[in-house]
Write a structure and sequence with these properties.
single chain; mainly alpha; two-stranded antiparallel ribbon; 58% helix
């Protein structure tokens, strides 16, 4: 006769528990259909968790790239502003040479 599972009786339910009832654990045997189904389900859940973790890491990388682009744009705008300010400062501060007419 082919068996697909074992039942294990757990007699010790922990300290402070005075209940006379015992717990029964259902354990499928290796190679049985139930064992394969459970393993497939566990494997599928594990893959889903890994995929979610990869997706989260990719989203975080994309957010970091976006923040870096924003910082680069801010630096570029600040450089342009500094260049414009320095050019405007030099243009009106000529003490020795007259400025050309506009």
């Amino acid at each position: 006769m082919f068996q697909s599972a074992r039942f294990h009786r757990v007699l010790d339910r922990g300290s402070g528990n005075s209940c006379a009832r015992s717990d029964v654990l259902f354990v499928p045997l290796d190679g049985s259909k139930l064992w394969k189904k459970r393993n497939d389900m566990i494997e599928r859940a594990r893959r889903e968790v890994e995929q979610r973790a990869r997706d989260l890491r990719e989203k975080e990388r994309e957010r970091e790239r976006e923040r870096e682009r924003e910082r680069e744009l801010e630096r570029h705008l600040q450089q342009q502003k500094d260049i414009n300010n320095s050019a405007a400062g030099r243009q009106g501060s000529s003490l020795f040479f007259p400025l050309p007419p506009p």
